Amino acid sequence: MLIKSLVRSVLSAAVAAAVLGASAVHAADAYPSRQVTIMVPFPAGGTTDIAARGVAAELGQMWKQPVVVENRAGAGGNVGTAAAARATPDGYTLLMGTVSTHAINQSVYSSLPYDPVKDFTPVSMVIPVPNILELNPGFADRHNIRSVADLIAYLKANPGKVNMASTGNGTSTHLAGELFMAMTGTKMTHVPYKGSSPALTDVMSGSADLIFDNLPSSMGFLKAGKLRPLAVTSKERSPALPDIPTIAQAGVDGYDASSWFGLLAPAGTPTDIVNKVSADVATALAKPEVRERFMAMGANPQAMTPEQFKQFIAAESEKWAKAVKESGARVD
């Protein structure tokens, strides 16, 4: 009797597991059955927001469900990122993470309200982009700054007198400037803002002198002549601005401070759902009209599998930890 009872228990457990497994598969197959939210940890109008809205529009069409963007800015992206980390891991809350939130912040902040590795599952890269060193045109004209060499000479003659705007403490636009100062032996006064839009507004008005901004959020202002570009921060020139040199080409050998933006899910999100979102993002980014739209802003769409994105983030974290150490940048 004992043996029969054990057999019945084992069979019951097996059936229950099979039912649960089938339910999980069915749930993944049915995903999404309601609204999906993409958390953006920066204000509207910046490159993180641009990347999220571009992907949200495409996924919404594919899924026949609303995909909305929620901007929750603060503390260099830490507020919104922490909120996404605490979300239910069911695929209905995703994060548009950045080089700042997942490769830089752990090196510049003494503590974070989230763990960029343990609290998230990488889904896919969306767009890697260069930053661009750009000046207020009036400031550039007054001091006859036409090149990176001109800027370096002015900075060395006027240490601490130039106001460098950024999109926030610990962001890639901040660290791009810190790395530039470390590699050129210059000093600027860092003025952090809560996102790209307010920072660019002050640079264009002359309240701040320059910024290392993400190219997509600056492209329209550059075309309108409201900002004066000197160089891009990537290893190679941007196809969107082929006449603008890289900072390395302009004389700062070895300089590279590119940005990137990609989707992540809260840790524990079912693998089937993560893989589906990743595959659908790849499909969306492969559309010619989507590629053209991003590339016109200076971004080159580049999907990755979850594993590829995981490895990429690990390499970026190592790279930026070294850069932060060299620059001495800290945010307490």
Please give the count of helices. Answer: 12
According to DSSP, the number of beta strands is 10
Enumerate the strands of the largest sheet in spatial order, edge to edge or round the barrel.
2-1-3-10-4
State the distance separating the first and last CA atoms: 67 Å
Percent helix: 40-55%
In percent, how much strand structure appears in the residues?
A: 15-25%
List low-pLDDT spans.
Answer: 1-7, 13-27
Which structural class is indicated by helix and strand composition?
alpha/beta
| Shape call | globular
Largest sheet entry: 5 strands, mixed
Rg calc: 23 Å
H/E topology pattern: HEHEHEHEEHHEHEHEHEEHHH
Keywords:
five-stranded mixed sheet, 12 helices, disordered N terminus
Short description:
By secondary structure, the chain is α/β, with parallel strands linked by helices. 47% of the residues lie in helices and 17% in strands. α2 (47-63) crosses α10, α4 packs parallel to α12 and α7 (172-184) packs across α12.
Tell me about this structure:
It contains twelve helices and ten strands. With 332 residues, it is an alpha/beta fold. The strands form two sheets. The chain has a five-stranded mixed beta sheet, sandwiched between helices. Helix 2 links the parallel strand 1 and strand 2 (67-71).
